[in-house]
Specification:
single chain; alpha+beta; 102 residues; 2 strands
Length: 102
């Protein structure tokens, strides 16, 4: 059992050591750099991974900025005062009309 734990840990660490990180983004970055002809452990490979990481960080920053703008717009709409008018009539016990807001 103890050997199984050490082997599992070694496999996980080997996966991290390849290009750095876990998950699909890391695997895709490794694949792209390998397909471009770069070999693990070379400065060219490290530069390839760094460029991919930089581009991904820029995409993430843009997504965060877009989300913040959307939240700001939503808060602005929620906090905006509305003016409304009601135009209606009552006949007997029935009331009907329209409400207009701006």
């Amino acid at each position: 059992m103890r050997n199984l734990i050490w082997i599992s840990a070694a496999i996980v660490l080997a996966g991290c050591a390849k290009g750095g990180g876990f998950g699909l983004e890391s695997m895709l970055a490794d694949y792209n750099c390998e397909q471009a002809g770069f070999h693990l452990g070379t400065p060219e490979y490290a530069n390839c991974r760094a460029q991919i990481g930089y581009r991904q960080s820029m995409v993430n920053a843009e997504m965060q900025a877009r989300l913040q703008r959307q939240q700001d717009q939503l808060m602005e709409q929620m906090n905006r005062r509305q003016s409304c008018s009601y135009n209606g009539t009552t006949i007997g016990n029935n009331t009907s009309g329209t409400v207009n807001c701006w």
